[in-house]
Amino acid sequence: MTSTAHPFALPPHLTPDFAKVHDYWKGLIRGRASDMPYWDDVKLSDLPGLTAKLILATVSAGPVRLRFDIVGKDVSARYGKELAGSFADEIEVRAPLDFFSAQASATVEGRQPTFFKSGEYGRLLLPLWGDGHISMMLGIVA
Predict the structure, then answer these.
(1) pTM for the full model?
(2) Three-state DSSP class for 123?
(3) 94-107 burial string, b = 16+ CB within 10 Å, else e?
C-alpha cells in the first residue's frame, strides 16, 4: 500500500499570522473529545489584529458547499467586493479565493487544517465541528 501526499498540506513552518490562528484553533480542542474544535467555541474577537484577514464559512452537510458568513475587510478588498452571504460556488474564481472550494473539500475530507500558497498570499483553512459533522471553517488569508 502506498501513502498519498495530502493535498494542501501545511508547510513545515507557518508565518506568525498563520501560526497564531493555527495555535488558537488547536487551543480550542476539548481534550480528547474531538480532533478539532467546535464551531461555537470560536470568537473572532480572540484574534485581535487579525480580524481583517479572517474568514468564517458555513459548511453544508452532504455535498460540500460553503457560504461565507464573515469575511474580513482585507480579504474582501483584495477580492474586489463584499463576500459575506455569498456561496463559494457562486462567486468568480480569482485571488485570494482561487482554489478555495478545492481546498475546503480537502479540509473536510481530511478532517484537518489545509494550506494554499499563491505567489502573493497564503490561505489557511481550519475545520470546525458542530451538529455531527464539520459545519464551519475558520480561515485566514495573509
Answers:
(1) 0.94
(2) strand
(3) eebbeebbebbbbb
What distance in Å separates the CA atoms of residue 93 and residue 112, rounded to the nearest whole number?
Answer: 24
Q: Say whether pLDDT at 77 is over 80.
A: yes
CB 116 within 8 A of CB 139: no
The dihedral of CA 11, 24, 31, 57: what is its sign? negative
- Decide: 88 and 68 in contact? Cβ < 8 Å: yes
pLDDT at 22 over 90: yes
Contacts from 68-75 at CB under 8 Å and sequence distance 24+? 69/136, 70/44, 72/141, 74/141, 75/141
Cis, peptide link before residue 96, omega less than 30° from 0 = yes
CA distance 121 to 93: 15
* Separation between Cα atoms, residue 21 and residue 101, nearest integer Å: 20
User: H helices within the chain, ranges in order?
Assistant: 16-27, 73-79, 100-110
Q: Are 59 and 100 in contact (CB under 8 A)?
A: no
